[in-house]
Every structure is written in structure tokens, then in C-alpha cells.
Amino acid sequence: MFFIPPMPDNVELPDPPQVQSSNDIWSQVTKKWNADFSKYQKMYSEWFPDAPTDRRFLCTAEHVQTRSTFPLPSFLAPIAVPSQISPEGELLHWINSITFLSPPKQMRDGRIASWQVPSSILITRKGGANDHAILLCSCLLGLDYDAYVCKGRSPHCCARRQMTALAPLVDATT
């Protein structure tokens, strides 16, 4: 048996360093992003006065369960998909079986109220169109596809054939 002798009385232990929480860091990033975006929005409206003035591009969102601030890309995580639903059609059918649910506020003003991580969507079996997009992208990442979630699309931004070149799974005939 081994006993550790007591520490001498004159030993001073330094205070642990103060670590900034990740929530504080992401809150600062959000404030800077919003300030920069409002400047950009003003410059953009000078060049294009007919453009919508109430646009917003989020860089972070609140985690539904922890209420902490997270960057939007962190909501994506590769999901191991069973081989039975790994073909694209089966995967889309399976994701479509999850209930689409949009809060009334989102339906009123058209702004996404909250974002869910894929695990929350799978547990509750419901979510908005944005949540379905995150789930689909996470499943495609799990199948080793090069997948992205794009928030918003203008029908005037690019032709369907350009979209097909950028996203090969998009059917150019529709």
C-alpha cells in the first residue's frame, strides 16, 4: 500500500484560467455577422432599389434542446443510412413520411422560427421544410454524397440546367 504525503502548507495553487463558453463566442459572431450584413444590405439596396429589404441570412441558430447558440453548419452530421433505403428514391420517400410541421408564426411572416438537429427530427418524427432539408443532407452525407443545404432560392437566379450542373441529383426535366 502506498500513501501520498500531505502537501506543504506554503503551496499556492493558481486559479484555473477563465475559459469563454462557446455560446458567448457564437453570440459575438452572430452580432458581428448581423452588423456586417446590415451594412451590406444598405449598399445592396442602393445598387438594386427594387430588391427586398427584409432579407436575412442567419449564421447561427438556437439549439432546440440546450438553448445554446450554434453555427448552422454544425446541425449537419453524416447519418448511417440502412441499405434498404439508401437508393435516392427510397430515401426521399422515407424522409417524406416524416410529418411536415411549420409553426403559425413561420407561416405568417415566412421566417424560419427554429432549426432542429437530425436526431430531434428523428425522435419527434416532425419538422419544418428546413428540418427535412437538414435530415436529407445528413443522410446524403452518410451515403458519401457531396451534399449541401442552401437557404432560399430565387426562381430568377439561375436556369434549371445550371442547377442540375451544380446539384446532379436535381432532375432537369421538372
Automatic annotation (TrEMBL):
Stored Pfam families: CEPT76_peptidase (PF24656)
Domain of life, source organism: Eukaryota
Coiled coil ranges: none
InterPro entries referenced in this protein's UniProt entry, alphabetically: CEP76, CEPT76/DRC7_peptidase-like_dom
Domain CEP76/DRC7 peptidase-like: 115-155
PANTHER family given in the database record: CENTROSOMAL PROTEIN OF 76 KDA, CHROMOSOME UNDETERMINED SCAFFOLD_119, WHOLE GENOME SHOTGUN SEQUENCE
Protein name: Sma protein
Organism: Toxoplasma gondii TgCATBr9
